[in-house]
Amino acid sequence: MNEKFKSGFVAIIGRPNVGKSTFLNQILKQKVSIISPKPQTTRNQVRGIYTTETEQIIFIDTPGIHKPKHQLGEFMNKEALATLKDVDLILWIIDATMDFGTGDEFVIKQLKDLKTPIILVVNKIDLVKNKQKLFENILQFTESFKNFSEVYYISALTGENTEKLLTAIKNYLDYGPMYYPTDQVSDYPEKFIIAELIREKVLLLTRDEVPHSIAVIVDEMTPDSENPNLMNIRAIIFVERQSQKKIIIGSKGEMIKKIGTEARKEIVMLLGQKVFLELWVKVEPDWRNKQAQLRRLGYDLVK
Ligand code: GDP
Ligand code: MG
């Protein structure tokens, strides 16, 4: 093992839609985390792994820390906080176009007692017209919370200053092992990534007609018995209401067909093989508030 090798874990936090996934993808130059114009696409942790000759950074894209509205929210919160204690660095990403608000105060309250260093990352600066107003807004953050190690202004979308931030992040790494092989960019199970890809297609194609509270699980993934180069995948899309099921299926099944076609294309790229994708839509009223369902959907991994 190289004695000079450095490694560490970096948690990314921030409200939904601030650009956490976009940042991760910009750094990793690959689609690891799922991006969509709707809030809260990333519900589980997705690790992106950045490896060079001299260092390895394992990014943890934590679900947004925000005021819980239901059981799922509370669960996400606990999970995120437990993670934050263990990492080497926290990146708190905020949206430069949004004013300091009570949501931010809530996050600050949670971060207050943590010993982990925190970098404030002000994202989407490509959208900022009034720089003066932005600095005044950021001042509110830094006045309310004195413990930021550094502040960076970036655009995760255009890549402005992201290399600089990456260099800064490397200062927080310690000598340590290479936790993952160099060619691995994510340790997330393929099934989960596939489910998220399908979920992304549903959200994008149905636009605002179904809530982002839908869930997708891949309940079967098996190589075809006759054609070993073909993967048979079956996924279930959970919705809360019959009306949402109707939208996802569409008239004469047109929508579900489109979702399947679009999702299949990306799954083929991910797996590098032929794919047969079967999609089902199930109505499970109020699934967010049912513990058993959460467990079945894989949300019981929290310590
Ligand atoms: P997340 O919920 O925090 O993971 O946010 P996403 O990465 O999914 O981004 C939410 C939306 O903001 C997407 O439409 C992104 O394209 C957009 N976005 C992210 N970063 C930037 C940025 O630096 N500039 C601009 N203009 N848009 C961004
Ligand atoms: Mg995300």
Give a verbal description of the structure:
The chain is of the alpha/beta class. It has 2 domains: 6-175, P-loop containing nucleotide triphosphate hydrolases (Rossmann fold, 3-Layer(aba) Sandwich); 190-296, GMP Synthetase, Chain A, domain 3. Helix content is 35%, strand content 23%. It is built from 9 helices and 10 strands. It has helices at 20-28, 71-86, 102-111, 131-144, 162-170, 190-205, 242-249, 254-271, 291-296; strands at residues 6-13, 46-51, 55-61, 89-95, 118-123, 148-153, 174-175, 215-223, 230-239, 274-283. Strands 1, 2, 3, 4, 5, 6 and 7 form a 7-stranded mixed β-sheet that branches. A 3-stranded mixed β-sheet has the order 8-9-10. Helix 6 (190-205) packs antiparallel against helix 8. The longest helix has 18 residues, at 254-271. The radius of gyration is 20 Å and the shape is globular. The chain starts with 5 loop residues before the first strand and ends in a 7-residue tail after the last helix. Bound molecules: guanosine-5'-diphosphate and magnesium ion. Guanosine-5'-diphosphate binds at residues 14, 16-22, 35-37, 41-42, 123-124, 126-127, 155-157.
